[in-house]
Write a structure and sequence with these properties.
Elements lengths: L2 H9 L15 H11 L4 H8 L3 E3 L3 E2 L12 E2 L5 E7 L4 E8 L22 E2 L3 H7 L4 E10 L1 H9 L1 H10 L2 H25 L5 E5 L12 H7 L1 H13 L3 E5 L8 H7 L3 E4 L9 H8 L4 E6 L4 H4 L2 H14 L5 E5 L9 H11 L5
Parallel strand pairs: 1-7, 7-8, 8-9, 9-10, 10-11, 11-12
Antiparallel strand pairs: 2-6, 3-4, 4-5
Helix pairs in contact: 2-3, 5-6, 7-9, 13-14
Length: 353
């Protein structure tokens, strides 16, 4: 059974030969695993771990994204990012250092803003990318699309965005609309170019904290639900399943997300309130496939190899008929023992012993 067959059989609850697997980690962990396994790059690492999915996307051909004297680099929306060192030099994360919408208080001020365009991408190579990944399940998009709150916060500030949600601020609503239009068109043009070969459209919206929802269900329905309904309906028209990356405690949103057309919940942060996997499977497993579930806060960084093996086997037994794509609950972080990461894939049967 190849990767595509395995993923589709898991989604359809038709008994894959093993759990399909997914991998995500920081660049530092990628490099450490590549060195440990003696593979040259990330693509070779994915193959070695047995990842069953591959990403395709259009090529950026838009305006040059500038780098500034302070080392920051420009994002699509005019924001800038700087690499911030953490852990006494263990690694870096790109953090927003310039927020172009932070002081904008009127929709009129956005009238001539150079928002990104779907025309900034070349879709001509999509079909060839799909052909090259023929044995794998193929996905497009990612956790940052459309990612209204998190994405806009990187251009406006986290605190400001949370106030915006509560007040239903007009500037915020305009930015949500712009973000939706852009990612919707990029995704649809990607799906058109793929000719039906894309299996999953990956989207994202962090809706939970560690203890509960980050916003109310009422706010979600008023500000975001219509956009997700339309976005996911478009994906379904092209034969793709829909995936939503959402960190934290999001159990309260799941009935609504299912109504809106969600097929796969990623990353299933099992250490968050109300996110125990057995309960989610019991209550939502008929409608949702889960992706992730191996905790980057507990068992992977702090457990033993035996702990990881046990948790992996529990998932293999509980989802033998399908309904799970096994992987970490976020990017695996530095200081996570490499033997723990490898144990997950080895026991799942995706990686040679």
């Amino acid at each position: 059974m190849n990767g595509r067959e395995r993923v589709l059989r898991a989604i359809e609850r038709r008994g894959p030969d093993r759990l399909p697997v997914f991998y995500q980690a920081t660049p530092e962990v990628d490099a450490a695993l590549c060195a440990h396994l003696g593979v040259p790059d990330r693509e070779a690492l994915l193959t070695r771990l047995g990842q069953d999915m591959r990403h395709v996307g259009p090529r950026y051909v838009g305006p040059e994204r500038r780098t500034f004297p302070d080392g920051s680099r420009e994002g699509l929306w005019g924001e800038r990012y700087r690499e911030v060192v953490y852990g006494d030099g263990l690694g870096t994360y790109p953090e927003a250092s310039y927020l172009p919408f932070a002081e904008i208080d009127s929709v009129e001020a956005l009238r001539d803003y150079p928002f990104p365009s779907a025309d900034w991408y070349d879709y001509g190579g999509i079909a060839a990318q799909c052909e090259a990944q023929g044995e794998y399940a193929i996905y497009c998009g990612g956790a940052g699309q459309p990612d209204f709150m998190n994405g806009i916060a990187r251009c406006r500030g986290v605190e400001r965005v949370l106030y915006d949600v509560g007040t239903e601020d007009a500037v915020f609503r305009r930015l949500v609309e712009e973000r939706f239009r852009f990612f919707y068109e990029v995704t649809e043009r990607t799906l058109q170019a793929a000719g039906g070969r894309i299996d999953v459209v990956h989207t994202g919206e962090d809706l939970g904290t560690q203890r509960g929802p980050i916003i109310s269900l009422r706010s979600f329905d008023r500000l975001f639900a219509p956009y997700y309904r339309e976005y996911w309906a478009m994906a379904h028209r092209y034969g793709a399943r829909t995936m939503l990356h959402s960190c934290g405690s999001v159990r309260a949103f799941l009935p609504r997300l299912i109504e809106l057309g969600l097929d796969i919940l990623d990353v299933v942060q099992v250490a968050a309130e109300g996110m125990a996997l057995d309960g989610l499977q019991r209550d939502f497993g008929r409608d949702l496939t889960f992706s992730g579930t191996m905790c980057v806060q507990t068992v992977l960084p702090h457990g033993t190899v035996a702990d990881v093996e046990r948790e992996t086997r529990l998932r293999m037994e509980g989802f033998a008929a399908g309904g799970l794509i096994l992987g970490p609950t976020h990017a695996v972080q530095v200081l996570t023992p490499l033997e723990n990461i490898l144990a997950m894939y080895r026991v799942a049967g995706s990686m040679p012993t």
